[in-house]
């Protein structure tokens, strides 16, 4: 085979000669040797036919006859994603009161509970959402879209409860954390309960009494008694009841608790009183007279809380992969994918802010991007950190597949991925789930930044996207676009699926030519 000089400059991660390609298909066909022993028809000459008919002597790509094609390298690449200048990051952290929030997230109240660092900021984000509901429904401006705000905040609360329920389920299923979550029981009060409406005892026939306790510090029970928020609170309470049905305990926020399950020590974990003491931004002291200030402030407190959950979750993913716990690592990765989608939903709340009030606030707070790297989201150092950590999961692929990267650039990792996908061997299922979750995280991460770019254009105007440059090109090269457009983080997995799809296209074509009843089995 001969190739032009220009063609041979394709990145070694995506280039495969015709000889290597034929070996790939021979690998799949060799896996069908069991079919041959059983008398099944396998066209062993297909490999040679493909190389001779579908490969040109001047190009490493398939001809138009083949559905498969070699991925071409994209121009966009983000080599080193960095936060905005330190002064901008510091101003953002002070605006959100991030140092005080961080103390609440990281304070270790229960040393024996390993998952406290993950579940605590998640519960605190939910509690801040309850405060957000109160802020929105108390807004006196007649031109605010109250109906859509109610729907968005209901949806946001429900999705957070869904993720919290999954975290609680995983906490119970893992042997190392089972039974370590702090739950209210009779022993915690020496068998005596305060005589108020926040506590009750469920007596099961033949079982031990269970304490059903409603949080005294959370805002949700209060929202349930306020006429403006009664319907939202009711929906949230029933969402808690439904989502926590698989857990042996519930949150204890006033949900029906029809199963009579014990309650999580919500007030001790979340500390709602301490959390709500941070409800005012330092910018409030400037008497801005702008209701969108509280909206912006609260939105980003929720965002940063979930970013903290992601940081802790990524650490646990690394630990579980190192420990060869691929099943639980896969579960955490799918959860991380959900959180990236949740971050997008949180950012989209900016769409409901009044244009005039928000743009006035933007100038009051002197929020302005002078370079592309100063997009408001890049002022969050933690967001940059979880972005890099999510991308760095690509370095874990060889270890999951049980191979080492070929220093000469050979397709060793790709071939291992194809064996994994095609073989379906017992014991490999969890690995398939894990690498699939890796790619799902990539998709949701890129979607977040693309959505954020669109959001800036809608909320602040298109000039803000390009840092107030006068010219905006259709072929954009701003950092947000580069993140979305850069090549896949998992080229070996991508290439493996490309060739696997092509294998089945030709295999099924051969099967059709030999009769519709031709059977195949997988090794």
Automatic annotation (TrEMBL):
Sequence ranges assigned to domain Hs1pro-1 C-terminal in this UniProt record: 244-506
GO molecular function: heme binding; metal ion binding
GO BP annotation list: defense response; L-tryptophan catabolic process to kynurenine
Pfam families to which the protein is assigned, alphabetical: Hs1pro-1_C (PF07014), Hs1pro-1_N (PF07231)
Domain Nematode resistance protein-like HSPRO1 N-terminal: 41-241
Family matches, as PANTHER family: NEMATODE RESISTANCE PROTEIN-LIKE HSPRO1
Protein name, UniProt field: Nematode resistance protein-like HSPRO2
Organism expressing this protein natively: Nelumbo nucifera (Sacred lotus)
């Amino acid at each position: 085979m001969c190739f032009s000089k220009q063609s041979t400059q394709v990145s070694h991660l995506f280039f495969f000669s015709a000889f290597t390609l034929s070996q790939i298909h021979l690998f799949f066909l060799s896996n069908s040797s069991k079919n041959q022993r059983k008398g099944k028809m396998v066209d062993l000459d297909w490999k040679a036919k493909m190389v001779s008919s579908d490969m040109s002597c001047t190009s490493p790509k398939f001809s138009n006859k083949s559905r498969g094609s070699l991925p071409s390298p994209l121009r966009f690449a983000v080599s080193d994603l960095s936060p905005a200048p330190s002064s901008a990051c510091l101003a953002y952290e002070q605006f959100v009161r991030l140092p005080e929030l961080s103390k609440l997230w990281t304070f270790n109240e229960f040393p024996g509970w390993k998952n406290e660092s993950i579940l605590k900021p998640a519960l605190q984000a939910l509690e801040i959402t309850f405060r957000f509901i109160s802020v929105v429904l108390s807004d006196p401006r007649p031109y605010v879209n109250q109906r859509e705000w109610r729907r968005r905040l209901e949806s946001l609360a429900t999705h957070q409860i869904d993720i919290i329920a999954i975290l609680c389920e995983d906490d119970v299923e893992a042997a190392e954390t089972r039974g370590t979550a702090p739950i209210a029981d009779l022993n915690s009060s020496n068998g005596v309960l305060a005589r108020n409406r926040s506590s009750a005892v469920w007596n099961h026939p033949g079982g031990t009494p269970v304490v059903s306790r409603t949080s005294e510090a959370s805002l949700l029970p209060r929202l349930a008694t306020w006429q403006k928020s009664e319907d939202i609170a009711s929906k949230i309470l029933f969402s808690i009841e439904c989502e926590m049905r698989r857990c042996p305990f519930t949150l204890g926020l006033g949900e029906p608790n029809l199963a009579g399950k014990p309650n999580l020590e919500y007030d001790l974990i979340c500390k709602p009183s301490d959390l709500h003491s941070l409800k005012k931004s330092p910018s409030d002291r400037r008497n801005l007279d702008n209701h969108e200030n509280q909206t912006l402030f609260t939105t980003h407190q929720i965002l940063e809380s979930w970013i903290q959950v992601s940081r802790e979750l990524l650490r646990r993913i690394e630990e579980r992969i190192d420990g060869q716990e691929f099943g639980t690592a896969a579960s955490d990765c799918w959860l991380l994918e959900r959180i990236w989608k949740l971050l997008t939903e949180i950012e989209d709340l900016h769409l409901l802010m009044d244009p005039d009030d928000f743009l006035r606030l933007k100038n009051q707070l002197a929020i302005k991007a002078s370079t592309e790297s100063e997009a408001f989201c890049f002022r969050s150092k933690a967001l940059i950190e979880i972005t890099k950590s999510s991308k760095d999961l690509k370095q874990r692929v060889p270890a999951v597949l049980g191979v080492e990267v070929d220093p000469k650039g050979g397709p060793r990792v790709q071939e291992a991925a194809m064996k994994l996908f095609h073989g379906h061997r017992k014991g490999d299922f969890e690995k398939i789930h894990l690498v699939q979750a890796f790619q799902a995280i990539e998709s949701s991460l890129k979607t977040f930044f693309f959505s954020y770019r669109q959001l800036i254009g809608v909320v602040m105007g298109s000039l803000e996207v390009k840092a107030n440059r006068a010219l905006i090109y259709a072929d954009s090269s701003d950092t947000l676009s580069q993140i979305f457009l850069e090549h896949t983080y998992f080229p070996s997995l991508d290439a493996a699926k490309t060739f696997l799809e092509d294998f089945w296209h030709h295999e099924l074509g051969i099967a059709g030519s030999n009769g519709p009843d031709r059977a195949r089995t997988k090794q």
